[in-house]
Every structure is written in C-alpha cells, then in structure tokens.
Automatic annotation (TrEMBL):
This is Xanthine phosphoribosyltransferase. PANTHER family: HYPOXANTHINE PHOSPHORIBOSYLTRANSFERASE (PTHR43363), XANTHINE PHOSPHORIBOSYLTRANSFERASE 1 (PTHR43363:SF4). Gene3D superfamilies: 3.40.50.2020. It comes from the Eukaryota. Residues 15-127 form the Phosphoribosyltransferase domain. GO terms for biological process: GMP salvage; hypoxanthine metabolic process; IMP salvage; XMP salvage. One of its GO terms (cellular component) is cytoplasm. Transmembrane segments: none annotated. It holds the Pfam family Pribosyltran. It comes from Pichia kluyveri. The keyword Transferase applies. Keywords: Glycosyltransferase, Transferase. One of its GO terms (molecular function) is hypoxanthine phosphoribosyltransferase activity. The lineage of its organism: Eukaryota, Fungi, Dikarya, Ascomycota, Saccharomycotina.
Length: 206
C-alpha cells in the first residue's frame, strides 16, 4: 500500500524550502510578499519565509488565498474538467492601506504540489489581472510587478493548464522536487506522524 503513495516528511519539506529559497534569492531576489494557496501552501510558505530573510530584516508578509476545484462532468469524457472557484481572496483595499498595494512588488505564490497546474494557472492569471486593474484605477503602471511560483513538488504528468510566463515579468517557476504521478502524502495531513515519518524515511524522503 505504501508503494502507491509518496510519503514526504516535515524534514524533507523544510530542506526543499531552504534549497528553493537560495535559488530564489540568487535569481529573482527577495520577495516583497508571499501569497499562500490554502490549505497546502500555508506551511511551506511559513517555512520558506524563514530562509528568504536575513537576520535583522523585517518579516515578509504572507497573504492567503483559497481556491477549490469542482468537477465539471458534462456529457462524455472530452468534457470532463475542473473549474476553479475562489473561496478566499486578497483584500486590495486593506493591502493598499497597510502595504501600498501589490503594484511594483516582487510576489511569490506558494503551493504544496503542482498536479494538473489548473490552480496555479488560475492563481497567477487572476492575481495579475487584479493587480493590473488596481494599477489602472490608480493611474499607475504595473512597472516592476513580478510573479514567481514555488511548489514543494511537481508531478511529472500531462498538465491541464499552462503557466503564462509573460505574466510573470521575469519571475520564475520553481519546484522543490519533481516526483512521479502518484498520490503524495504530506505530513500535515497525517493522523499518525510517527508511521508517516517512518514510511517517508524508507522512501528516502526525509
């Protein structure tokens, strides 16, 4: 049964986030804000933030968005797909008051896994469009607004959507580790962390 799943330990996630942070800092630079896709992106966002700041610097703010995938069955196999629905989104009014909006910022989107890429495509596209709309309302230019994406794991499989690099404005897509197309068991989903960690170590994911 354990061979049907890939077990990932907390230590593994921690190390992958640390490695990714080094790459991010050396290429696109320190993010101004992290956007965590809930719920899988919450813990990796908090971990990677530790490695994206130097001692004495202010913490990078973490904002949360919630997205859900709904099956669209239709009639026939060709029509089967998934629709992304917003369940939680950014309050741009509050951001403008306390953070000077996201216009011109270096933004890092974080999730735990890139499976079909549907969620990541939606998150990037919608965030870009919202920042652009906000900039137009304020009479500002998108300027140096940059989007990057970090996922703990990328499944090696055919994707249902693609990431439009033109929206990223020089940002990067980064996977901590590419994995086969299997069910990934993350530690924050486990009800028995000791057994989970044991299985992760047996698979070399510690």
């Amino acid at each position: 049964m354990s061979q049907d799943k890939i077990y990932i330990s907390y230590d593994c996630v921690h190390k992958l986030c640390q490695k990714a942070a080094d790459q991010i800092l050396s290429t696109v630079g320190k993010p101004d804000v992290i956007v965590a896709i809930g719920g899988g992106g919450f813990i990796p966002s908090r971990i990677i933030r530790t490695f994206l700041r130097h001692q004495g610097e202010k913490n990078i703010p973490i904002q949360a968005i919630g997205l859900s995938l709904y099956e669209d069955l239709g009639t026939g196999s060709d029509s089967i797909g998934k629709e992304v629905i917003r369940t939680q989104w950014l309050d741009f009014g509050a951001l403008a008051q306390h953070f000077d909006s996201l216009i011109g910022k270096n933004i890092l989107i974080v999730d735990e896994v890139d499976d079909t890429r549907t969620t990541l495509h939606y998150a990037l596209t919608e965030l870009y469009n919202d920042v652009k709309e906000n900039a137009e309302k304020l009479g500002k230019d998108m300027g140096n607004t940059k989007f990057s994406i970090f996922v703990v794991n990328n499944k090696l499989k055919e994707k249902r959507a693609e990431i439009d690099e033109s929206l990223m404005n020089g940002g990067m897509y980064l996977s901590g580790e590419d994995v086969p197309d299997k069910w990934i068991a993350y530690p924050w989903e486990s009800s028995d962390i000791d057994t989970h960690t044991k299985l992760a170590k047996e698979q070399g994911n510690n």
